[in-house]
Amino acid sequence: MAILKIAKMGHPVLREPASEVADPTAPEIRRLVEDMLETMADADGAGLAAPQVHVPLRVVIFHVPKSRDEENPNPVPLSVLINPVVEPLTEDTEVDWEGCLSVPGMIGAVPRYNKVRYRAVSLEGKPIDRVAEGFHARVAQHECDHLEGTLYPQRMEDLSLLMFRDQMRYHADGASEEAEKEE
Ligand code: NI
User: Fold this and answer.
1) How far is the CA of 96 from the centre of ligand 1 (A)?
2) Is 182 annotated as catalytic?
3) pLDDT tens for residues 108-117?
4) What is the dihedral of CA 41, 109, 71, 136, to 10 degrees?
5) In the chain, N or C terminus with fewer CB closer than 10 Å?
6) pTM across the whole model
């Protein structure tokens, strides 16, 4: 296991579409995921996509912090998705705060679909098919965007709400607590 270096906005690997994983059960994919899990934990992040660690493959990991999942009777497990595909299940969007480990120190208000379905393959080669709402839907959309070379500022409709985290105290809507994790 190893903590990997995280690419920052501006690095070409974050702008390019990632490639499909040919064999999700391959040992090198398991090693990559183990290193990504360690890297995410070390950075105290909510999610991480392989391009963020300079690997242009369609692999993402995420978890939903307990504080964002309190009312869910079926808590979202720590998720490892290989070759994920996200499909919106509604046209309704919600704007909420997001951070990204590749855009350190910043936070932005990003519209995302409220409800999505995502399909992927697990490390064991088994199909994953889930419906996600709220923060779960948001983090899945954020991570899968990384696989298309898209960072959250590109999704923003009001760039005046792209700001440094240490300025959040000027905003009285609780955004600093809401977005304590980066993705
Ligand atoms: Ni991110």
Assistant:
1) 14
2) no
3) 999 999 999 9
4) -60
5) N
6) 0.93
